[in-house]
Amino acid sequence: MASEFGYSLKITVYGQSHGEAVGAVADGLPAGEPFSLERLAKFMARRRPGAPLTTGRREPDAPEFVSGVLPGERETELVTCGSPLCAIIRNTDARPSDYSAFADTPRPGHADYTAYVKWGGKADMRGGGHFSGRLTAPICAIGGIALQILERRDIYVGAHLEAVGGISDARFPLLPTKQLFDEIAGKAFPVIDDACGKAMQKAIAEAAAELDSIGGIVECAIVGLPAGLGSPMFDGVESMLSRALFGIPAVKGVEFGNGFAGSASRGSQNNDPFVIAGGKISAETNNSGGILGGITTGMPVVFRVAFKPTPTIGKPQRTVYLSRNEPAILEARGRHDPCVALRAVPVVEAVAALVTLDLLLSSGYFYNTNC
Amino acid sequence: MASEFGYSLKITVYGQSHGEAVGAVADGLPAGEPFSLERLAKFMARRRPGAPLTTGRREPDAPEFVSGVLPGERETELVTCGSPLCAIIRNTDARPSDYSAFADTPRPGHADYTAYVKWGGKADMRGGGHFSGRLTAPICAIGGIALQILERRDIYVGAHLEAVGGISDARFPLLPTKQLFDEIAGKAFPVIDDACGKAMQKAIAEAAAELDSIGGIVECAIVGLPAGLGSPMFDGVESMLSRALFGIPAVKGVEFGNGFAGSASRGSQNNDPFVIAGGKISAETNNSGGILGGITTGMPVVFRVAFKPTPTIGKPQRTVYLSRNEPAILEARGRHDPCVALRAVPVVEAVAALVTLDLLLSSGYFYNTNC
Amino acid sequence: MASEFGYSLKITVYGQSHGEAVGAVADGLPAGEPFSLERLAKFMARRRPGAPLTTGRREPDAPEFVSGVLPGERETELVTCGSPLCAIIRNTDARPSDYSAFADTPRPGHADYTAYVKWGGKADMRGGGHFSGRLTAPICAIGGIALQILERRDIYVGAHLEAVGGISDARFPLLPTKQLFDEIAGKAFPVIDDACGKAMQKAIAEAAAELDSIGGIVECAIVGLPAGLGSPMFDGVESMLSRALFGIPAVKGVEFGNGFAGSASRGSQNNDPFVIAGGKISAETNNSGGILGGITTGMPVVFRVAFKPTPTIGKPQRTVYLSRNEPAILEARGRHDPCVALRAVPVVEAVAALVTLDLLLSSGYFYNTNC
Amino acid sequence: MASEFGYSLKITVYGQSHGEAVGAVADGLPAGEPFSLERLAKFMARRRPGAPLTTGRREPDAPEFVSGVLPGERETELVTCGSPLCAIIRNTDARPSDYSAFADTPRPGHADYTAYVKWGGKADMRGGGHFSGRLTAPICAIGGIALQILERRDIYVGAHLEAVGGISDARFPLLPTKQLFDEIAGKAFPVIDDACGKAMQKAIAEAAAELDSIGGIVECAIVGLPAGLGSPMFDGVESMLSRALFGIPAVKGVEFGNGFAGSASRGSQNNDPFVIAGGKISAETNNSGGILGGITTGMPVVFRVAFKPTPTIGKPQRTVYLSRNEPAILEARGRHDPCVALRAVPVVEAVAALVTLDLLLSSGYFYNTNC
């Protein structure tokens, strides 16, 4: 138990930042689903390091699919075959020596210390090991396939960087559409309002210049889901999504629809009136984030994910020598994103797509649509 | 899949608001653990309906334990015996007729509509059925036992009503202790600052007077946990807690430590410096909420849970006739809490205690301590 | 983890033989499924104690359904509503004093000793506690509902007592049909050949007269399943069934189709040729027991379950005093079946029905058929 | 759900026979456990193809461990680090063209047909795809590590070929010891009595010469387990083992201790008397196979696994053209073992070792022993 989530679709993530490889296995994908490697590469490029404002680490990050697929009709296409799909991404630019210091002086805010305690000093402490943000690459590799499978059924998942260091690009209400998602995905900086994005970039650059880091919020939406998916109580859509989202490194909060803001409101404001729209039952507003009682309403599922500032910073920080039980000062080197939330935008999409696909598979939806 | 959570300790919740009974089964409790029925009754009284500002429904809510226990040394004590413990609470004050209207006109903000769609109109629609807040009574019955098992090992769980309708009783940093928990649990209104509590009560009373409802936030802490519990990624402490917490009716957000506020900060502010305190490694601050990389740091685990306003309100609301696909106006009757967050304080404690016990059992902690 | 099985349909069994009650919770039943209480009572009567050749314990064993149901169209009918169904059966004829001796002198062949070790002497040792055959009553209560749900879809489950103490009523090949199942279910002694049944009854009576017990084999079949259900490897139909079947007390072996006999054969004999029958692909023989690669072939699923002799016997047996670590002689009193396999026939059917329903639900089959 | 088993230790198997690679991920291994690559290679060599009487396919089968490990003290040693361990074995000798015929004419007794139905013709049909015996290679790679971890704690797992085509090398009672296991593992043909082994080899050679195949039985034992491991009912040791064992291709039966033979006996014969041996409670005989009520007794866990004859045979067999719904005759080519049970001996050991390790981890055993 640990690096896995899902019911009908189980995702297992493996690898360490500076080990041989990172990767993931997806067990339960429907068979006969083609996916474009070009589109996948384009999706994965959105989280790739090396862009301005991200870590200097440069890796092609091209996943190899060693199982679960057959050749597709075109050369740049593969087709799922129903058996577990394993993706492997080699670590070609690993520099474990950058991190040797951390083995004895755990980074404040990072998992170095807790991993050390949990595994009695036997964990791979190089660059965060299994806790590294690098583990989100295979999540995107698998999630990018799920996105293509969903889109074929007119279900779309998209996210944007809603806030950085308190600078907010929030829209209330957010009106998510495929068009909005495509537009944001096409931008170098994934915001709705580019002027706001400029201010965010400035804040990130300033933090980086001060050898510091900065937090942010990613907002994500899933559109096109039918009503009636999910379950009451502990396997509700919120439970399934939050469990998976908190598995992304640096996530410290998840809220659906109005979330924490809703807790400051009245029922008469927060309840979404039911209306007849186009002959069908719909909700006039979407303060519920598309989920009531853990079950989809048919409105967009909307949620927000809080990312803490990257814990690894160049500024001197107080820590301890594990070996000597004495105070220490750490000035972290290595290559780190000043704002993990930025590159996390497609990661949140990937996790949301995988949970959505699991939800559909668990409900029997795919049985009906002949997959 | 649905009404269950847990790994080594599995909790299954059953029942409908206006059916025969509600209850829960706990499979995996350690054996030989005595628990006081008096203390349990006292704990459960904290969520009981009938208090001022809560629903008018009056039920003794005394759980009967039909399995999993043996007689204890004292008459008011039972002892776990290792086999699944089943608690049953009869619905003695059910009035299904109060809710007959909802069957055709789903309450905005409630699960009436989504349950209708999911189960093709075959769900128990009386009073929220399985989605009712009444299902939290058996959670408290089982969670109250977990609390006693934890306390025997100097692990304490406590919560307070941090906010109602935007009126905040937050403390940063919160310094949770058994003493603070006991103090709050002893109050009629579970806040830290009673003056603030008065303002909250006024806001609740005003909402009720206007046939409306109001949201709130519950903050909870777990103290006494050793460092090193939990797992990386998707079975981290945040994942386990959030999955269970979103199973509580009306929860729309969960954040740990600094949570959403942390996403507006810098790494140099948000990271908790490691220090030597009393010869042991500790953290100077607790912005992480006691969890790094999904694993406990040994500091208190602190989290906040956002509750939306009670969806059932007396004010007229727009909805639809399911049978006729036409607009309708609903003025809900029945007995409802104007602020679910208030009675949810012990529910959050109960869920936190159950997840904590599962976490300890899954880690092998109990094996070591001879249970 | 322990007293639960299932994926989309989770069954949790609770209770102790001489505690307050035994029961089960079924989470995931499809909604809107009526079931006849009369038919259920008739089914449960087949495992009821008190018949000749079974334990002298007499209990009505009528389950009360406290959740998961709504009233049906007729008075003796209930309808599932989609939320967890909890069945409770009170222990009205418990005589814990019969078993007090076992607390210190564990019965050879029984779980007394292992339960003692596992729970450090804190288990409920009265009459087998949670390990008692009495726990199969709630399995039948839930399984009897599953049988009715399956029959509505022309899927039938039936079993017969294939052997007792080496006396065999086996048929190769078994040609299972609803008619055969109905015929056997209508008999006082559930065999195909009544003459063979007479010999078995004699063997049981002789064992009982000698204060001894005797083992037996139950053969079960599931007819009407479509091809393509199940999964490769560890969630294959054999894996799902065997995991659940070994949870029935006294089961020590499970084989599918030709099973152990097949391991003595050649491939050319054991392979089932594919043929076209009635325009459809079928298999000419069914040595595979209806399962290839963990997935149903569309032929009947056939398996055999080996039950050991009832461990509790009146004959003097060597055991030990747990308290004194010294040898002891035990002459068990109490009321025990001389042949557990006899009453296990409907229990095997119940477990098979529950696994089959889970298999269908997990595959999405019910989504398609509008349940 | 499908290609995974385990609770605290989760094993996921991926790959297709004629795809890029096969492999497995083990999530939950204890950290700091060194394992010798030489010993692992020696263990894996026991199932390797290319030996006399096995398939002609020749592959080095050396697993690459791309995650979950750190370098060991010696060059041929790796050490687990607590994060998921991924093993990958490239398919270097794949010849998909050998199998193209099967795509339209499913092999009787093989999963070709059921995979075709389950995945609507979209499965990888080359050489059995994910259903191939080749998938047992990664099970051995991971299981071989578990064996080394267990041996360090004086827990030993061993198996022998108990029967081939009805020729039996059974010992009643089997007295399993590390010495016996080592002796058998050192033999070219894994039997206890070499004369019996000669007869088996003759039977296999004869079947092969006639373009046929032959079934067999593998018996396995686990020695050194403490009493009290496992759970009642559906997570008992028999349930856990059988679920995993039926995931091995060609397994059709599993029995524990006396198993099916026990069902022909009396309780007075089958019950194992408890005795005091060396000051400790023990059982005089082991008809229970070391398990009572799903929980270990402290005696060796002993079980037998029935393997059907290899379904792929050269003899002409009747099948159908899937594309034309017409009868066909298949004469299978390709490289196949005439007796899968032979190479399955280490596979059964590997699965048993993995389940045993999971059982120990789930019980908290490792917490206590400082791993």
What's a concise summary of this model?
With 371 residues, the first copy, chain A, is α+β, with helices and mostly antiparallel strands. Helices cover 27% and strands 24% of the residues of chain A.
Describe this structure in words.
The structure is a homotetramer of 371-residue chains. Chain A has 371 residues and is of the alpha+beta class. The first copy, chain A, has a single domain, classed as Chorismate synthase AroC (Chorismate synthase, AroC fold), CATH 3.60.150.10. The first copy, chain A, is 27% helix and 24% strand. Chain A contains ten helices and 19 strands. The first copy, chain A, has helices spanning 37-45, 112-118, 136-151, 178-185, 194-209, 237-245, 259-262, 267-270, 340-363, 365-368; strands spanning 4-5, 10-15, 21-27, 34-36, 64-67, 69-71, 77-80, 85-90, 156-164, 167-168, 216-223, 251-256, 274-277, 280-283, 291-292, 295-296, 301-307, 317-321, 326-330. In chain A, the strands form six sheets. The first copy, chain A, has a five-stranded antiparallel beta sheet, with helices on one face. A five-stranded antiparallel beta sheet of chain A has the order 10-9-11-17-12. A three-stranded antiparallel beta sheet of chain A has the order 4-7-6. Chain A is globular, with a radius of gyration of 21 Å. Chains A and B meet through strand 1, helix 2, helix 6, strand 12 and helix 7 of A and strand 1, helix 2, helix 6, strand 12 and helix 7 of B. Strand 12 of chain C pairs antiparallel with strand 12 of chain D.
